[in-house]
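Researcher: Structure prediction, please.
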Amino acid sequence: MPSKDLEKMVSRFDSSSEILSGLKDDILWLMILIYSFKVRARLEGLGQWSREHMSIEFMLLDSAVRDIVMRLTALDDDSKNNRSFQTLLSALNRENLLEQKRSRALKEKVKKYRDAVNKFKVEHRYQYISHVNTDASVVPRVIDRPVRFHEVASLAVNLMDDLAGTTLQYHFKMGSNESINLRNALQAE
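Model: Predicted structure follows.
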């Protein structure tokens, strides 16, 4: 029977399967949000909209972009006890589930993601979403300065596949019989 100290030590770490499951949900919600953004960004019916309706639509699109940026940066959160690609890689290594060569390759991919998402932390999150300087202008950017999140989002989805060791499927279920395969839907756009 393990000692109490060992039980405490083991229980304070999340298992790789728990972290993987949570991250898969995080990626699912990221993809649902991106899909929803793309559908709304088509601006269907624009000719019949009032100025108020148009302004609200643009504000909602801008809010979606802010959420996308926050979700992408959260996947890089290296704070203690937060779910991220780094914590999953650490758990996989801690549990000896990776051979050394694969571990090094995944470490490089996590670093590549961290480098890519750093731009979002500096240019978007810190300038108009959170940790905002007192002199920053917090205005909608969806039209005049759109955020190019697609490449970083693609890196996140592919990195999740690499960490899981398989191509994961993501479905947006809207009812018992309705489901959108988000990989297919987003690749088609």
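Model: The two ends are 56 Å apart (CA to CA).
Researcher: Thanks, that helps.
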